[in-house]
Amino acid sequence: MAGQQQAGLTGAGKFIVLLVVVGLLYAGYTFMGKKPTTGSTSGGTTTGTTGGGSTTGGSSGGTGSEDPSGQPGQVTVQSEYKYVAAEKLPAVKGVSGYQWDAKDKVVQFPINVWIGWLPIVAANHGFKANEESVFYKKYGFKVKLTLVDDPVQARDGYASGKFHVLWGTLDMIVLFADELMKDSRTAPRVFQQIDWSSGGDGIVVRESIKSVKDLKGKTVVYAQNSPSQYYFNSLLLSAGLSPGDVKVRYTQTAFEASAAYDSDKSIDACVSWAPDIYNLVEKRKGNRLLSTTADANKLIADVYAVRADFAKDHPDIVYGLVAGIFEGMELVKDPKSATYSQAATWMAEGYSMKPEDIMGMSADAHTTNFAENVDFLTNANSPTNFERTWKSISYVYKELGLIRGTVQFDEVMDFSVVKKLQSEGKFKNQKNENVATFVPTTYGKIAAESPIVTTVIQIQFYPNSANLHEPARDENGMALKGSLYDPNVDAVIERAAKLAGQFSNARVAIVGHTDASRKGQVDPAQVKQLSLERANAVKEELVKKHKFDPNKFVVEGKGWDAPADPADPNNHFKNRRVEISVYQIEAAP
Description:
The protein is α/β, with parallel strands linked by helices. The protein is built from 19 helices and 17 strands. It has helices at residues 11-22, 118-124, 134-139, 151-160, 170-180, 227-238, 254-263, 276-282, 308-313, 315-331, 338-351, 355-359, 370-378, 386-399, 416-423, 443-446, 489-502, 524-546, 572-575, and strands spanning 47-49, 80-82, 106-111, 142-147, 165-169, 188-197, 201-206, 219-223, 247-251, 269-273, 287-292, 301-307, 365-367, 453-457, 507-512, 553-557, 578-583. It has a five-stranded mixed β-sheet with strand order 9-8-10-7-11, with helices on both faces. The chain has a four-stranded antiparallel β-sheet with strand order 5-12-6-13, with helices on both faces. It has a four-stranded mixed β-sheet with strand order 14-17-15-16. Strand 8, helix 6 (227-238) and strand 9 (247-251) form a beta-alpha-beta unit.
C-alpha cells in the first residue's frame, strides 16, 4: 500500500523483496495462508515462471532463454506462480474459551507484516510483553505482539483462545464473521480502525483497456478470498457489471497474480500490490494502471477484532488497548521524529527487516486517528463509515456467493470505547487529517481522460423539474403531501455517495441526460440546461448531506445528445439518467 501512483518502488516494495528472501511468501493479506507451489502441473493447474523460466500445461508464456514479454529482466517480486481452483474459506478449526493469566495480564495480539501496526508497536515498545509499554504504565496490562501473516492461522488461533485479538481488513472480518458468530464467545467486536490502505493495492491492465467496463469478457487474475478480490469486484459492480461478466483465474498470493499476468499474455488484468503494480507499468510496455488505492483510498479499512467473551470480561483492558493505540498514533505521527525512528527499529526487529525499509513504508497506509475513528464509527452521514463499508463488502461477497450475509454491522461494530474517550475529552488534539480538497476545474479538462469507473443512476425527475425531492402528483397534477415522485431517490443518492466516498482522492464527474420525447418541439439548448440543472441537483445533494468538497465534482448537461444505448435511442426511461464517472488524480489540473 503506497502513497501515490508515481511512487515506483514504494516502501512496501522494499520490504516485500526482503520477505521473499526470508521466505514469508504468505504476504500479509493473503487469505489462503499457504506457500506457493511451483514447477508442476496437476489437475489442470498451470505453473509458470517469468524471465527465461518455463511454463507447463496450458500457459501461453512459452519456453526458452528469452523473457516471455520480449523485454529483459524480471519485474515482479515473485517469478513463479500457480493457478488454483476456486474455493471457499476452510471452516474454523476448534472453538474454545480464551487463555488468560490473571496475574501477568498479557493480551495476545497477532499482527501481519504491515506498516499500519506501527502505532501499537510504538505504544508497546516493541513486540515483547514488557513493563515499559504505554499499556502497562498507564493501564496495568501487557501486550505481546506475534507475527502471524497467515490470516486463517490467526483466525484459528483466535477461535481456540490462544489469541484475544484478530487482525484483519474489514473485508476479511466480513468473510470470517459467518463462522465466528456461530459461537458467541468468538463473535468479533471491532472497537477501533487502524488505517486505510493508501496506494499499494492496484489493478494493472493491458493498454487497450481504458475503464472497468472494458473488462467485460476479459480475463483477470487475483488472489481469492482477499482484499484483491473485494477491491476488483467492488469496482466491477459499481460499473454495472457482474462477476460473471469477467473470466477469473485465481492464485494463492497477490505476487503470484502479478507474475502470472506478466508471463501469461492471455490474462488481461491483474490485481496486486506494490512494487509489482508499478514495475509492470514502468518496466513493461503495453500496461497501464487502471486504479490504485491512492484513488480508492477509503475502500480497504484495516481493523482488529476482540473476542466477545474477552471484551465482556475485561472492558478495562479493551479501553486501555484502544486508548494506548491512539497514544501510539500520536507517537508516530511525524515520520521524521525520533519516536518514529525508534518505533521503526522495533518493528524491523519484529519483522526481521531493516529499519530503513520500515521507514520507507510510511506512505503505504493512512493512520486513522481518534477524530477519524469517531467519524468512521459514529458519523451517520459519512459515506465511508463502518456501516456503509460493511454493507458494501457484504454486498460484494454475497454476489460472489462467499457469505450468507446474515451478520449485520451492528453485531460487530462497538463504538462504546471511542464514545467514552470522547465524553472524557481525550485526544481532542487529534483532528481529521483525511479530508481531500480540490481546486476548481471543468468537465472538459477531466473528460479528456478515461474514467476508472462510470455508474449510471436512474432518478425519475418530474417533467421539466430538477428537484430531486419533487412530490408525487395525483391524477389532477396536485402535489401529494409526504410523497416523492421518485421514492427511490435517497437510495440512489446513497449509492452515488458511497462511490464518491470510496474514491476520496479522485475527481467525480456528474453528467445529466434527458430523453428525446420532445425532440423537434423544443430548443435543444433548453433541454441541455435542464439536464445540467439535474446534474447540479445531484452534486448539491451529495455536498449538503455528506460534506464533500464541492470542487471534487464537475457537472455537465448533455440533454438528449448521448442516448444510453445508441442502438435504442428512443428508450426514454434509460435516457432519463445521470452518469457518475470517477477519474484518477492525474486527470486533475
